[in-house]
Amino acid sequence: MIRFFSILILSIFITSCTTNSVSNNNATTGNKLTFEPNDNGEYDIIVFDPQYDIFLKSIARPKTYNTYEFYKSKNRMYTSIWNQRHMMPSVYDQNLYAVSIDLDSNVDYGLDFEYKLFNFFQFIEWKYKVRLM
């Protein structure tokens, strides 16, 4: 009987020590955030964190505080830094930088989009106490 239990425990131990093969191939698994225009031809951002809307309404500066060019240039810099951190999961929190952001500098996304994206980066800095720039 003792021999049976020892064989059972040994077999459980051996099967529990096997590794699962997990592919960490972010480029091919679709961990990329792309932006598509809606039916009206406008771009929009939807952030699923309820604190983002609170941040946007209470902490963020008004949309007209900065120019469209300011938001656009800052977003390009933030996106570049974000994507660099996404590509280095061993250095930066892979849960925070889970997706890369595909932002085309040749596309006119509009003031609303640029404002919301800029404030998304500001929100990340505020909520997670990280410094992107």
UniProtKB/TrEMBL annotation:
UniProt keywords, alphabetically: Signal
Domain of life of the source: Bacteria
PROSITE patterns documented for this protein: PROKAR_LIPOPROTEIN (PS51257)
Signal peptide (residue range): 1-21
InterPro entries, per the entry: DUF6146
One Pfam family here: DUF6146
Keyword Signal: yes
Protein name from the UniProt record: Uncharacterized protein
Organism: Faecalibacter bovis
